[in-house]
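Q: EF-hand domain-containing protein, please. Structure only.
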Amino acid sequence: MSVLRFLVTREALATLTKRSLVPTLQNSRAISSLTNSNNHSYKAIFAAKAIETPTQQQWQQQQTRGHKRFGHGEEKTPRVTKYFHLMVITLFIISVLDWGKVKRLIVPKVDADAGQRPSDAAGVNGESNSESSDSDESDDDDARLNPHDGKKVKEKVGFRERKIIEYENRIRQFSTPDKVFRYFATIQVPVADDRHEVYMTPTDFLTSMTPGMKQPDGLGLDQYRRYDPKSVGEQLNLQLEKNSIFYKLGSYGLITFSDYIFLLTVLSISRRHFEIAFRMFDLNGDGDVDCEEFEMVATLVRQQTSMGTRHRDHANTGNTFKGVNSALITYFFGPNMDQKLTIEKFLDFQEQLQREILSLEFERKEPNADGNITEADFAELLLAYAGYPPKKKQKKLKRVKRRFRDHGRGISKQDYLDFFHFLNNINDVDTALTFYHIAGASIDQQTLQHVAKTVAMVNLTDHVVDVVFTIFDENNDNQLSNKEFISVMKNRVQRGLEKPKDTGFLKMVRSVFKCAKETKPVLLDI
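A: Structure for EF-hand domain-containing protein:
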């Protein structure tokens, strides 16, 4: 076997050697034949090289697998990528520059007194100085003592406070009811099993709805004052009337999250809509609803509001809607819940709630010894939900301050409440003023008083109407711009509760642009 294996191996080696030598012999014969030729020796050698070269190129291309100049150079950037980078850089520069300051640097203000004689210039300067002094005095009113009653008026808002107020306004406008409640609530009371219940005071409830009202320092999202449940009623001084509507909620006049949702629903729905909802669920037609029917009415009405559609229960924070408060159920349907709720009783509850919220707003402006607030404070309350840019709002407030600085007698609480009772009928007022406009009649102060008397059965005083015309009469022609007046007053009645909380794509882009515009860091100013 070993001899046979040796012979087979030997024959295989011979065969391989023969096969490998055949090309070599053929090449050598070709080269020798080319060398022996006398006429074309060098040309034949170069032709053989030319025949061999493509084979080497193909072999090199096969080894590189299609890569050319791999690792030996940078790839050129596409033109589209360059344009995209340029656009991103341009948008970034546009967003961080203060274009108002750039405009002031490039286009300086023109001195209107440059070509006048000294006497004329002195006269013009005197008038301009008087106007500027008026505006300066109106600005300084916020940092001085009122000479009439000695009360200290609010000071100017600094940069930090202004940014906090802008942030809180965005929370009111875009956040869910759960987050708004957790941010503006200030009371935390421990309950059983190491759990805590969060409450709002009536003032917190007002702050959560009113733009521009800053939350006290040290309080914010999930930051509260902690009270002992046994003495919380004694420690708190809510300064409410004995028959206040908030005491009907139980909990010493405090507001739970379920109460917060219910009260917002009551404030955001008009009397007319509540009447329709009650009649829908009044099966026997007697105008009354029982407890179960009222739960359905409250659920239906809440789902129609932007706040109700925005709310989602959050079990991890404990803010879940648990229905109408048991204390309110007892107030509406009796201790045994065997009574029926009439639409008149519920509308009285709504009217009393609105009246107490208005009273809290009025008292927050710190009336003087006569119980009156200034005309500027009244104008600020009217424009609280107007949605004006800050400059336009300040322009209107300064106009009111200049007009009533010397002969202002203030606005009483009764006049204030009467005017807002007039605003509760704003849809009917809009219809009446539209008829006047179609007929070509001007809307002067007497016309507005006549509409208030006819539509809302309210006698508006001449002074209140004068303040309203000062706010909305831009060109001083003693004529009311009814479109602007009606739109602002509708927002005031609704308190911004009916503004949509959900943002579509375009609204989201506008919101992002607005936030970026309002929160631009000072370090990026040039």
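A: Brief note, in case it's useful. The chain has a mean pLDDT of 74.
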